[in-house]
């Protein structure tokens, strides 16, 4: 599965702690993140993460491009609802793309934990079918 981590500044420590708690689940998946979030996670875990630019510099849009191509399977985006973000339009575009493509998206730790436990149980197997029968793949 392709999984992305995004966290606003005041949520980065919470993200790192969450990923540490579920490192055993995440280690078998292809991981992506925005810049600083990925750096912080890699400093505290053994995980390898493909890092994009930071969110305000286009990282949200880079992850959004994968969502638009239906190449992302799960996004954990710990948003700070109490702080205005200078790149709010990019954030809203990413959230909208997740809805359009049916990509599971957690914006808080409670929802993230439910999704990660489902991932660990194998409840995301349906995403493999999405990729298998994607037009243009394997002669489809």
TrEMBL record:
Function: Catalyzes the formation of methylglyoxal from dihydroxyacetone phosphate.
One Pfam family named in its UniProt record: MGS
Organism: Paenibacillus ihbetae
Keyword Lyase: yes
Reactions mediated catalytically: dihydroxyacetone phosphate = methylglyoxal + phosphate
InterPro entries: Methylgl_synth, Methylglyoxal_synth_AS, MGS-like_dom, MGS-like_dom_sf
Family annotation (HAMAP family): Methylglyoxal_synth
EC number(s) given by UniProt: 4.2.3.3
Active-site residues, Swiss-Prot/TrEMBL: 60 (proton donor/acceptor)
Gene Ontology molecular-function annotations: methylglyoxal synthase activity
Family to which this protein belongs: Belongs to the methylglyoxal synthase family.
Gene3D superfamilies the record matches: Methylglyoxal synthase-like domain
Protein name: Methylglyoxal synthase
Residues the record lists as binding substrate: 8, 12, 34-37, 54-55, 87
SMART domains: MGS
GO biological process, one term: methylglyoxal biosynthetic process
Residue stretches making up the MGS-like domain: 1-140
GO cellular component: cytosol
Keyword terms of this UniProt record: Lyase
Source domain of life: Bacteria
């Amino acid at each position: 599965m392709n999984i992305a981590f995004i966290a606003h500044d005041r949520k980065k420590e919470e993200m790192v702690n969450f990923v540490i708690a579920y490192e055993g689940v995440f280690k078998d998946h292809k991981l992506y993140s925005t810049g600083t979030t990925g750096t912080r996670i890699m400093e505290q875990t053994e995980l390898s993460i493909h890092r994009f630019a930071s969110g305000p510099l286009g990282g949200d849009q880079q992850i959004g491009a994968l969502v638009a191509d239906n190449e992302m399977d799960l996004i954990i985006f710990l948003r700070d609802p109490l702080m205005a973000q200078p790149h709010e339009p990019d954030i809203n575009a990413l959230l909208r793309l997740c809805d359009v493509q049916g990509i599971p998206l957690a914006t808080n730790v409670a929802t993230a934990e439910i999704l990660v436990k489902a991932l660990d149980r194998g409840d995301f197997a349906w995403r493999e079918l999405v990729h298998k029968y994607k037009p243009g793949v394997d002669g489809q």
